[in-house]
Write a structure and sequence with these properties.
By secondary structure, the protein is of the alpha/beta class. It has helices at residues 30-35, 55-58, 83-96, 112-117, 133-146, 161-171, and strands spanning 49-50, 66-67, 71-76, 101-104, 125-128, 151-155, 178-183, 195-201, 207-213, 223-225. Helix 4 links the parallel strand 4 and strand 5 (125-128). The longest helix has 14 residues, at 83-96.
Length: 230
């Protein structure tokens, strides 16, 4: 016979049950809460990105670069003045990886010596001369759907919001970045593009860049990117 010295032979008291705290009403599971993006925070890109080649610009873009599987709008008052210089560092990396760059309907003939100075070999550059807006749009959509190039730049000054939306849907299967060069007045139009930037020229050949739309809070400052044209 076993005797409890403290309880004069009585059985020990059972341990109280462990209480499990219920989650607060309305609380989200941990894994769901961690995946939530709040509008006042710079979002992380859900797709692959390519560094822009400008450190100060990468710091302001979700994921730290130009998005792939999506379109980016580059708006400026006059075409073919700054987009090559803005995109040049990224295009150089695309060419270095052995991929092809396709340009559709540029406003001015690409200047081959200047492109060579930027490190863009003509063997990795395809220029499609399409004059009619419908032709440019059709060629752009077909190339995006076929996922046939490392980067695509298309000049679409007359594209409508529903056409931009269709291109954005198609671009989700495109591994490379897709850039649409459009007039500055398009700033006031609705656009399905996840990223929109306004490009202007500054003194000393610098580029002034304003991020009009991104996944995150509004970007109110203007970035100044030093860039001497080739």
């Amino acid at each position: 016979m076993f005797t409890n010295l403290e309880g004069q032979g009585e059985p020990p008291c059972p341990s109280p049950p462990v209480a499990h705290l219920a989650p607060a009403p309305g609380a989200l599971p941990v894994h769901v809460a961690a995946a939530i993006w709040r509008g006042n925070e710079l979002g992380s890109s859900v797709t692959q990105v390519i560094p822009t080649g400008w450190d100060e610009l990468d710091q302001e873009l979700p994921g730290g670069g130009w998005p792939c599987h999506a379109i980016t709008e580059v708006l400026q008052a006059q075409p073919s003045l700054g987009e090559w210089r803005l995109l040049g560092p990224m295009l150089k990396a695309v060419v270095a990886a052995g991929k092809t760059i396709v340009v559709i309907g540029p406003a001015k003939r690409p200047h081959l010596p200047g492109l060579r100075r930027m490190g863009l070999d003509e063997h990795h550059l395809i220029w499609i001369q399409a004059e009619a807006p419908a032709e440019r749009l059709w060629v752009t959509e077909q190339l995006v759907k076929s996922n046939a190039c490392g980067a695509l730049i298309s000049w679409l000054p007359q594209a409508r919001p529903e056409q931009i939306r269709r291109l954005q849907i198609c671009a989700q299967i495109c591994d490379g970045p897709v850039f649409l060069c459009r007039p500055a007045a398009a700033e006031h139009e609705a656009s399905a593009a996840p990223l929109r930037v306004q490009l202007r020229l500054d003194l000393d050949w610098a580029l002034k860049l304003q991020i009009l739309k991104r996944k995150g809070p509004a970007h109110e400052q203007t970035l100044r990117l030093p860039s001497v044209p080739g």
